[in-house]
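Entry type: protein chain
Record version: 2
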Amino acid sequence: MRNLILVLSDQLDHMSAVFDDLDPDNDVVRMAEVDEETTHVWCHKLRIALFLSAMRHFRDELRKKGRTVEYHELQKQPSKDRGKSFAEILRKDVKRLKPERLIVVQPGDLRVQTQLQSCADELGIELEIRVDRHFYCSPDEFAEYADGRKSLLLEFFYRDLRKKHDVLMADAKQPEGGQWNFDHDNRESFGKSGPGDIPQPKTFRPDAVTKDVITLVEHRFAEHPGNLDYFTLPVTRRQAKAFLHHFIDNILPNFGKWEDAMWTDEAFLYHSRLSAPLNIKLLNPRECVDAAGEAYRTERAPLNSVEGFVRQILGWREFIRGVYWLKMPEYLDLNYFDHQQELPSFFWDGETEMNCVKQSMQHVIDHSYSHHIHRLMVLGNFAQLWGVHPRLFHEWHMAMYVDAIDWVSLPNTLGMSQFGDGGIVGTKPYCSSGNYINKMSNFCKGCRFDYKKRVGDDACPFTTLYWEFMDRHYDQLKDNPRMKFPIKNLERMRKKPEEMADVRSRANSLRDASSSILTQQSQTDDRS
């Protein structure tokens, strides 16, 4: 054998650089389902099932192309596996197959890349790590962009990429519509009337391969969180393309206007859910951006929706990947506010009387998904106000979300959501009282907590904890120009010491509560 070509679970791309010079007669493609990747964080059942099903479909497609594939399947009985860790199985495969060289596209997780390199060094075999051309911007290009800058701002990076790749540009310098950002036309709430008729999401029935995977997951990972009742995601390239086209044709026109809105029992609304097929590379970001641009040019979608969607993919997705590789491994240990709390138990089971959290967690339990406002301004907001260690919040997100890969999860959770990096990704903490949740949803109506109240038994935990958070971190926040308004309100409150004392007392009682509202885990378990 000449090359052993390693295809990882988030690299299911037939156009990947690992296949550039593949010789079917002398090279072997190697894929492995690994127990460690399902248990190093306590993975949601649906997340496990998606990765395994997509991998097995990709394996079958490669074999139909005439490529030799060495594939390790997880068994119902763990004792029948060839090993538990990625490195353990790879060592056995290399000793058995005796390749001259290992080839892989850069992994999306530094932990995996380090394991691979250590294993290759131990075996005395060359490991060639190729650039992942799935992305618009390589880590080296991002490092060059960041060099010498005092701060990294998405807006300027995003504009540079739009110019470079001629995306939504009227000419070489001017954007379509005369402006780069259409946020003033976006992010509305549904109001009292609600969302009305929402386009039905595209779904796919599990085929025989997926059904086998579901049976395996239900048997082997029965104690893991979540459920498999709603497994309708695309698991092949063909399905992923149909998923994209359905979004462009039916959902994109209203995406921008309602991208921040939430509503009872509505998990998807006008969101694409393309992040999962994108992040395992069943879709390419260019075809998503191009399809959206074409919808604008043919007047099938307005510019505000198209620009908002393009910003997420061409802008934010590329930006946070650049930050990940620029700042790792030190980034993982950043904790700007020195938060040390564990996650409350309802982050795993959804058992809470806070209606907004219960709604958000039900989406996560059912779909291993919730859209970005549920993640950022409900679940992430609560974790930050509560004082959860940012690394624990990242590990929870990695465990529970179907679209979570380390490169995309870590800067989003530790950085943007928890402000653990002190402002590398975001310029301010993303936190709010219950008032924001009331504005953007109908969750507060009928909730036993009053979003307007800071203290009292019926005071909204978000509102109490928000002002306690602002008070606790006053010295770190008072000079942030984007926090001027809440800081001024806090300073007025601080002139009434008894008022702030009541807020602090209420916050402490919430953290000490043993009720289902805010029950903490008594000790760190495997899920943490």
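Comment: Strands lie at 3-6, 27-32, 69-72, 101-105, 126-130.
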